[in-house]
Amino acid sequence: MNARRTLATARRVLLQLRNDPRTVAMLLVVPCLLILLLKYVFDGQPQVFDSIGAPMLGIFPMIVMFLVTAVATLRERTSGTLERLLTMPLGKLDLLLGYALAFGLVALVQGLLAFGLTVGLLGLNVAGPSWALLAVAVADGLLGTALGLFVSAFAATEFQAVQFMPAFLLPQLLLCGLFTPRASMAAWLHGISDALPLSYAVDAMNKLTTESGFGGTVALDLLVVLGCALLALALGAATLRRRTA
Fold first, then answer.
1. Residue 242 scores a pLDDT above 60
2. I need a labelling partner for 238 at 20 to 30 A (CA). Which of 87, 162, 206, 214 fits?
3. Element containing residue 227 per DSSP (H, E)
4. Are 146 and 225 in contact, with CB atoms under 8 Å apart?
């Protein structure tokens, strides 16, 4: 890994994003709009928003980051940009870490905006430290970025990249404990949910909304989410191939 090349890749991606205001709006505005919509869907049931608002603070940005990262990376592949980059003295890990760093910075801004809206303007009740809630939300955005980079290696078109969302994200959404406690699921489903990173993100969010302090279990959940993001990046580097010899 070469830090200079990684930073150069990140800078190039950020410059491209700056010239694409629609994508920037998709990344920064859409999660906030979805959270705002969720708040007023349960306008007459504030306790419902208090129970699911924190998990959705991480889930919405994760979904958006997954879609945008997968499509953006695939566009670079199909346009030949990625092919040209791989002919240069640029390691695969340098390339993916550059993308991850650029979109990670976007995920940080995205998390700050969504957090400020949810906790500040919409008044989400949080028993634990607010900074920990923000950390988990940003980690979810990073996870979505890493998963998007990983699945882009297996898609041939942008439509196929979008199709990976049901395979990679919807099972996690169903099994993460958002709709029902994971302990009440069938034993074999509970076992599967234990292997899915979103389960740990939702567990951490739920604990932070109901328990004061930053306990060891929350720290462990956060480490699992970040570890899964790093694993996805490593697998993405291992599966990244040139289209031609």
1. no
2. 162
3. helix 216-239
4. no
